[in-house]
Each structure stands twice: as structure tokens, then as C-alpha cells.
Amino acid sequence: MHIMEGYLPPMWCAIWFIISAVVVIYGIMQIKKYTAENDDAMPLLALSGAFMFILSSLKMPSVSGSCSHPCGNGLGTAFFGPAVTAVLSVIVLLFQAILLAHGGLTTLGANIFSMGIMGPVCGYIVWVALRKANISASISMFFTAFVADLMTYITTSVELALAFPGADMGATFATFFGIFAITQIPLAIAEGLLSTVIYNYIENARPDILVKLGVISEQEAGAN
Amino acid sequence: MSIFEDTLDHYSTNNELSESNIYSKIIFALLAILLNLMTGSPIFPFLIFLLCSFLILYFAKIPLRFYATFMAIPLGFAILSGIFLAFLGTGEQIWTLGFGIGITKGGINQAMLVFFRVLGGVAALGFLILTTPMNRIFAIFHDLHVPAVITDLAILMYRYIFLFLDVTATMYNSQKTRLGYHNYMSWMKCLAALAGMVFIRTWEQGEISYKALASRGYNGQLNMIREGDSIKDVSIRDWILIILFVILSVFAIIKLGNWTIF
Predict the structure, then answer these.
(1) Interface confidence: ipTM more than 0.85
(2) Binary contact (A198, B199; C-beta < 8 A)
């Protein structure tokens, strides 16, 4: 769910821009270092970004019967890490704004913060924790995508509640959160399932890619 | 399958304003978006909406039907969230739903303001994206000193998005003709196979692209001829129109103040 152009008051646009800029600049520095060391990183990063964009243009069936599209940030963060995902999501969101008019230019900062930073970072923490605990990659993938998706919406509802506090900020947040939670938890579960099945598919077909990305170890790939 | 066929990209490269100086368009659109946010009255965003729609339909000659479908999705969302915001206001309730929830005067005014701001904002954004081809926007990136890594990534991504949307659409159609997507579980399975396959294809394409680039002396940086309009080429007529627009807008914003319909 992207916040539309013109939806946020100017002050909040600026605040989210500044917060996001700090993280994105860090991500750009990471990518610069990465591409300077590996020549082949650039085309692969670009293709991964294109993949994220295409993923977000696919229709996903939800448990509740409605249709939505996957965020793709869970898959991205597990494969490439949160810093790279943040930068890729900047470009993906910019493209969505100027190719499809989803989201907008002034609300770009807020959307980057929810979709490119909070979601992936929380997802990444879950991913690392579960992988440390020796839980299989498919199951970790489900929870990573679930958490990343859900955190994206929770952050969006925080952003909206801060911008439109109404009579009582807590109550407003509860309302926004209630609406998002009812509609989004089924979607988050669907995205988790979808990411797991995508992951399994890739693991069966090309485990070497996942080994190269450092998602799984050689032994795990060999076991298949 | 998607909204991409017969799309925005087609119209943005084939309209009456595609060839005009990008800086005039981008300066106007950004100013319109910013001024649109500064106002406290729903009237001004509505004027922005009228102005931008006029420019899009009359000068750029975008078909009305396409413009209507372009605006429909954001508008639907804006109406929904407007209704929602109307219930959030403070003060005396003029219509009560029960459970202590009701529409207040402040709520309606806030909802109107946000609704028209979205309307104006999307129209101004629409003016920019419907009249400006993407490759020209990349030239702006260079002038704004966006890091070369980002520009290169964006250019490569833009190219591959359309390449792979084509692949995705073909795969989707072939899955459909083989009775894919007929129920929930099959939908999940087909979609996962589609996304997984697209990922593998993109990865392989990435490796191939790298080999192709490496054989031509690639060392981690794409060297492209940057050509495009310069900010110096903006005609005096455009500058005068833009300045006139800003002066009139500021005047209108001050004059209208926080004037509301209710």
C-alpha cells in the first residue's frame, strides 16, 4: 500500500525524506563498495531490481478473497540484505511513481521508509535469527516475508496516524492499525506462503544461485 | 495481464509535448506539486487539477479515455480514504454512526482537503509522467549529480523491466492456456512457478549481460553519452509562464487561506 501523492502534509513529507535519506545513503555506499570489488555485481543488482518491480506487478490471491500484489521486500532482504534492498526499493518506488502513478514524489520518503527500510530490516532480523537457530530456509523464508510485509503496513499506519492525529493519536493509530491488520494479515500470510513456494522452486532449480548469494551453505545445497 | 500493454510509456513517448524542453515540464510539475501541498483550502488543489488536466488533454493531446483510466485508480483510493478521514475529526458530531464514531465538521473539512490534494497532486504528477519519456528523466539524474551507480542501476532496470514483463506475460498466458490459476491453491502454485522462473531468468540474463559487457571492456562503470536538454534552453516564454503561475498560485493560496466549503 503506497501513500498517494498529496496525501501527507508537507512537514511529514520532509521528515520521512530526511530519515530515509540517511539509510539510503548508507545503502548507496554499500553498493558502491560492492560494485567496485565485483564487476559482475551491477547487472545482477539491476536485474534483481527489475525482478522486484515485476513481482509487485503480479496479482496475488488473498485468503480473504480480495486481490493484492506481493511487496517482494521479504524475498529481497533474504537474498540481498537490507541495505541493498533499501536502495533497490528507492528505484522501484520511483519507477512505480513515474511509470504507473502508484505512490508519488512527495510521499516517496514515507514510502521508502515503510517499504524499503522498516519492512526489510525487521524481516532481516527474523531471517538471521531463524537461520541461526538452524531452522530450514523455507520456513525462515515464510516468517521473513510475513514479518516484512506486516511491518510495512504497520509502519504505514504509524505514518498515517502521525500525519492525521485526529482527537487522540493513540486511538487514531488503533483505527488505522485495525483496518490494516484485518485486511493485511491474510495478505501477509499469502505473501509468506508465496515467498516460500518461490524460494523452494528456486532452490530446486538453481541451488547454485542461492549458494552464491550466501543464502544457504554448500552442504544444504548438496543435500537436495 | 497487466496495465502495461498500451500504456503510459507509449503515450509518454508519443504526445505533442514529448519533444518540448524537459526542464520546463519538470520545474512546472514539481512547483505545482509543492504548491499543492502548501495550501490549506481545497479550492486551490482543485484549480491545479483543472490546469493540469487542461494541459494534458489540450496541449499534450492525451486521449480523454486513457486519462480517465489513469486517474481512476488514485481517485478510488482517495475517495475511500477521504470517507475514512471524515470520521477522524474532532469537535461536535453532525452525523453519528454509533459507538462514539461520527462525522464531524472538522473531519469533513480535512477529508475534503486531503481528497483534493490527492486529486491535484496526481494530476500534476500525471502531467510530468504522461508528457515526459523516461530516458529524458535519466538525463536529469545526471544533471542533479545523483551518484552514477544509481543512474546506471536505474537505466539498466528500466531496460530489463520491459524485457521481462514481456517474458512474464508470455509465461502467464501459457500457464492460463494449460488451465492454470483455476483455484486458490493452483493460483499460488502457478504464481510461485512464474515468479521463481522469472527470477532464474533474470539471474541468467544478469550473468549474460555481464559477460557481454565484460567482453567490451566493462570495468564496473557504464560510460554513456549524456545528451538531452539543458536548463539554459528553457525559452523565455516558458520562464514567464512558470513565474506567472507561481505568482498567481501564491496569491491564490494567501487569498484562499484556510477557507473551507463547510
Answers:
(1) no
(2) yes
